[in-house]
Amino acid sequence: MPLSRLLLPFAAAYFLSYFYRTANAVIGPELARELALSAGDLGLLTSTYLLAFCLAQLPLGMLLDRFGARRVESALLLFAAAGAAAFALAGGLPGLATARAAIGLGVSACLMAAFKAFSQCYPADRQASLTGWMMTAGGLGALAATAPLEALLALAGWREIFWLLAAATLAAAVWLFLGVADPPAATPTGIGLAAQWRGVRQIFASRHFWRFAPLGLTLTGGFMAVQGLWSIAWLMQVNGYTRAEAADHLAAMSFAMLFTYVGIGLLATRLAHRGIPPIRLLAGGVGLSIVMLALIAGEALPWTRALWIAYGACAGFGTLGYAQTAAGFPLALAGRATTAYNLLVFAGAFGAQWGMGLLIDLLVAYGRSPADALRAVFATLLALQIAAYAAFVLAGRRR
């Protein structure tokens, strides 16, 4: 199958997935104003997407390995379209949270299904580059959910925007189902549920898996929580920017992340052939992302835009953890390996996104200002990331 015919439908779906994930950072203040939501309410609302996404990962891995990427993802996207329509109709926090959970469930296969399809159609030395191109599509979705979404809010309300998203998601489901052919390995295998669960247990019992899992939990998941909600809050309440200025910062960060993804897509295979494997790119990139977050949280430098740009560019290398995790397992376990890793990524994002909101509310209730509360929760996230990175480095040295 030509690469463009396989890549483009999956890329379009992942664009929408990332847009949904990031949109609440921009529309969050509108939701809070219109519906009188607290920081904890907003964190819970935004993180229901992540919780549903997270809970879907292990069953999703078994479905992908059994029925193939095209069938599974196109079916799930129908739930996302229905969730977007329900979000547009909702009148309060319960309805919004339920609708956002349906969206999270519906887009839960967008990246994992693509990885499964790529692993069946292309050799291992091309997987890092293909990961880069998929993440480029996601980066474009994240970019569209920043300053462009802020501009669109001036022309249409958030409800009208979600009606448009529902229609676009339905179109993506149809494109995937009709436009992508299943490779031979994607036909039902007849493997029983017990055998599939043994494969899942094999993954979670592997030292290889647990070398990378803490990075996904705290660094990739933590970045998603910051990008998806708390970046705008930090920029407005700590740095004192307007919402439009904060959205511009977020757009610049997302563009930098997109630049990293394009670079991975273009250069990862070439660099591997020249002795610079993806594991080194992963280690260097996420290590620098910790440094950038420390500089942001420390408020030691006045160049806020440059720091957020550098943070996005460095954090983009964290996506290489998916391919590095899957590389340690047989092809038959590829779907379950990547979804197991993704489970921890989204568990980390959910925990950070909601937990940061709860901690902010607690600190404010005890007399801290919102800005000081944000400083405390960013410092907590930073400490967890440093611990996870140290464990990753030590595990590599033992190997």
UniProtKB/TrEMBL annotation:
Source taxon at top rank: Bacteria
UniProt cross-references to Gene3D superfamilies, sorted A to Z: MFS general substrate transporter like domains
Membrane-topology annotation of the record: Multi-pass membrane protein
Coiled-coil region: none
Coarse class of the protein's main subcellular location: membrane
Localisation: Cell membrane
Residue ranges of the TM segments: 44-64, 76-93, 99-118, 130-149, 161-181, 209-230, 250-269, 281-301, 307-331, 343-367, 373-395
UniProt keyword annotation of Transmembrane present: yes
Keywords, ordered alphabetically: Cell membrane, Membrane, Transmembrane, Transmembrane helix
Annotated InterPro entries: MFS, MFS_dom, MFS_Efflux_Transporters, MFS_trans_sf
Cellular component GO terms held in the UniProt record: plasma membrane
Record carries keyword Membrane: yes
A molecular function GO annotation: transmembrane transporter activity
SUPFAM superfamilies tied to this protein: MFS general substrate transporter
Pfam family, one: MFS_1
Sequence ranges assigned to domain Major facilitator superfamily (MFS) profile in this UniProt record: 6-399
PANTHER family named in the record: CHLORAMPHENICOL EFFLUX PUMP RV0191, PURINE EFFLUX PUMP PBUE
The protein's name: MFS transporter
Organism per entry: Azospira restricta
